[in-house]
Amino acid sequence: MALASTTSQHFDSRQPELIHQYLAEAYGTRGMSISSGGHDYRLRHRRLHAGPFRADRTTQSGDLRVTVEGMESVVVCETTTSSVSRTCDGEEGWFRPGDVFLSARPGRPYRIRWRPGEMLVVQLDPRLCAQVVSPAPRRRPVPVQFTGLAPASPALADHWRATAHYVRLAVLTNPEASRQPLVLGAAARTLAAAALAVFPNTALTDPTWQDRRDAVAPAVRRAISFMEEHAGQDINPADVAAAAAVSVRSLQLAFRRHLDTTPMAHLRRIRLERAHEDLRLSDPRHETVSRIAGRWGFLNHSRFTAHYRSVFGVPPSRTLYD
């Protein structure tokens, strides 16, 4: 699931057959039927595509009824100006503007009635969840299953809205950030982690006795060696854990136990040092601080500057121009 850059696509039609074909292809459904009340129906759809995740903004003017046989992706919906009712596995939900919900459990059939208005949708490749939480290499993998289609609390719904808004604004619509594989990879896993935090699921987050047993110093050394070698690539927690031959939870526990940090924080420190080297060796006539920071996965310029100054004692611009 390598990421190169985002692409955008736009669709605007009043023709029911074209709308049906477009939505079926856009969401990769095994089967879909659509009907709409009203004689002046129109659907406008804008998609920002970033490999394993997509962010959509869709507006429609009819009373749309959709029946879907199933989609393999994780689809998180946020109504903005419309009202939506949804039925999946006998679970019914009614959502007003501002509400957040899962369209369905991946692979399961569902029905939606969508009143006129706008809805924001984030579509995630289910494999992203395995990059955030995974078993050790020798343990039997258990796919994450979502056990509820509504957020576990209103505060968690706010967390999803804030996370999705940040990814849309700071990453997908930022021309510089959207070309950086490390930034896009981090954004994809941020969305997956948010979905797992917001909606009830079967992912295990607390260390088991096996995780505690495996949280040893050699695992940390193997992980750091892998990070050093692959810091310029879009590696994720599951990649690092696999290289260390432990689970993600065990690796997190080992880093806390032996280094008082987290694996991803340590990876950020390695990338900060690589950014420092690039700044030191680059020609300021051809490079910028923002471009180098983005290349190493640092999106927020002010945070990068503050973090850089705290480690190296000077702002990154000083290193570049000295």
UniProtKB/TrEMBL annotation:
GO terms for molecular function: DNA-binding transcription factor activity; sequence-specific DNA binding. Gene3D superfamilies: Homeodomain-like. PROSITE patterns: HTH_ARAC_FAMILY_2. Residues 221-322 form the HTH araC/xylS-type domain. Keywords: DNA-binding, Transcription, Transcription regulation. InterPro entries: AraC-bd_2 (IPR035418), AraC_XylS_family_regulators (IPR050204), Homeodomain-like_sf (IPR009057), HTH_AraC (IPR018060). It holds the Pfam family HTH_18. This is Transcriptional regulator, AraC family. The lineage of its organism: Bacteria, Bacillati, Actinomycetota, Actinomycetes, Micromonosporales.
